[in-house]
Design brief:
Chain lengths: 182, 154
């Protein structure tokens, strides 16, 4: 009985955090709207460069704002940073999905599929999607600066999975070329 | 194959020269990175998104000039976006001092009209673009707050 109550409370908390993060996302100042999505159409979905990720979740910027002793500036800083952090989570998630889609397409065309390798890639993908979901909730609950380590971990994992899949897909193409030449 | 490589080199040389010329002649005269970014953004045509610089185009041809401006613009943008908040506030202060306008007026106009939005190049990461505008909004608010504090407690 107590266990069920705790689980229900945890679920409610999770939903509240999700709703909060979602609201924060919708409340973003207007520059996350159409003109930014226009940029995205031109540039294609790409993961954010790592040096900017550590800046989004930077403790130094927070310390600087806290040192100014202004409640209003602190509030504005949190609002702005959470907005950027949530957009980063959304972008990362979209970039990972795109990489995975490309990989699935490449694998579908290939006849040299390694089941174990595919299973490992799928597991990494699931870990990344879960990390993105947790970050989304974490930012809504505690703010961007509190999830810094997890964000950096997720970013590292995203870079790695992107690299591995690019190399893997290039290898697949090479093998296909060799088979076709025989 | 060899012909294609030679042609790529021929294309790259004027671009590199145009880029160096842009850095050495025009951009080196601007005191701050934010100023350079605003200047480079101003060489872009609003209607077409193409860059144009008369001197550069006459020396290196319109194509090399356009490409050099585009590359320099993107680099300046990423440089400013990578500033910490504290650095950006200092940078903004330097920029406001360098303009001939009243800094207070300029600050108010920047907060209201957000003209820095047009300083974002095309083909940049959307999260970095968002970080750029967000940081500038914060830097403007911080600068305004500091100026108010200075007036209250000189």
């Amino acid at each position: 009985m107590t266990g069920a109550l705790i689980a229900a409370a945890a679920l409610v908390l999770l939903l509240l955090a999700w709703a909060r993060a979602d609201k924060a996302m919708r409340d973003l100042p207007s520059d996350s709207g159409e003109w930014l999505s226009g940029l995205e159409e031109d540039a294609g979905i790409s993961a954010c460069p790592p040096e900017f990720v550590s800046q989004i979740f930077s403790n130094d910027d927070q310390a600087y704002v806290l040192g100014l002793n202004s409640r209003e500036l602190e509030r504005q800083f949190r609002h702005e940073r959470n907005g950027v952090a949530l957009l980063w989570v959304q972008q990362t998630s979209a970039a990972v999905q795109q990489i995975m889609r490309q990989h699935v397409e490449a694998s579908r065309r290939s006849r040299d599929i390694e089941i174990m390798m595919e299973a490992r890639i799928l597991l990494q993908y699931a870990r990344l999607r879960a990390a993105c979901a947790l970050l989304f909730v974490g930012i809504g609950l505690a703010g961007a600066e509190e999830v810094r380590s997890m964000a950096l971990y997720t970013d590292g994992l995203t870079q790695r999975i992107g690299q591995v899949l690019r190399e893997f897909d290039a290898g697949l193409r090479e093998r296909e070329m060799k088979n076709a030449m025989r | 194959m060899k012909g294609a490589m030679v042609s790529a080199e021929v294309k790259l040389i004027p671009l590199q020269e145009a880029y160096d010329d842009l850095l050495n002649r025009s951009l080196s005269r601007i005191r701050c990175e934010l100023g350079r970014l605003i200047y480079l953004a101003s060489t872009r045509e609003y209607n077409t998104g193409n860059y144009y610089h008369e001197g550069l185009a006459s020396r290196f041809g319109p194509e090399a000039a356009q490409k050099a401006l585009e590359v320099a613009h993107r680099q300046a943008f990423y440089k400013v976006s990578a500033f910490s908040l504290e650095e950006l506030v200092q940078e903004l202060e330097r920029y406001l001092e360098s303009t001939k306008e009243d800094p207070q007026e300029c600050l108010r106009a920047w907060q209201k009209l957000e003209p820095y939005r047009i300083a974002i190049p095309t083909d940049v990461n959307v999260t970095v673009a968002r970080l750029f505008t967000s940081n500038l909004r914060l830097a403007l608010a911080i600068l305004r707050f500091r100026r108010q504090q200075n007036r209250l407690h000189p």
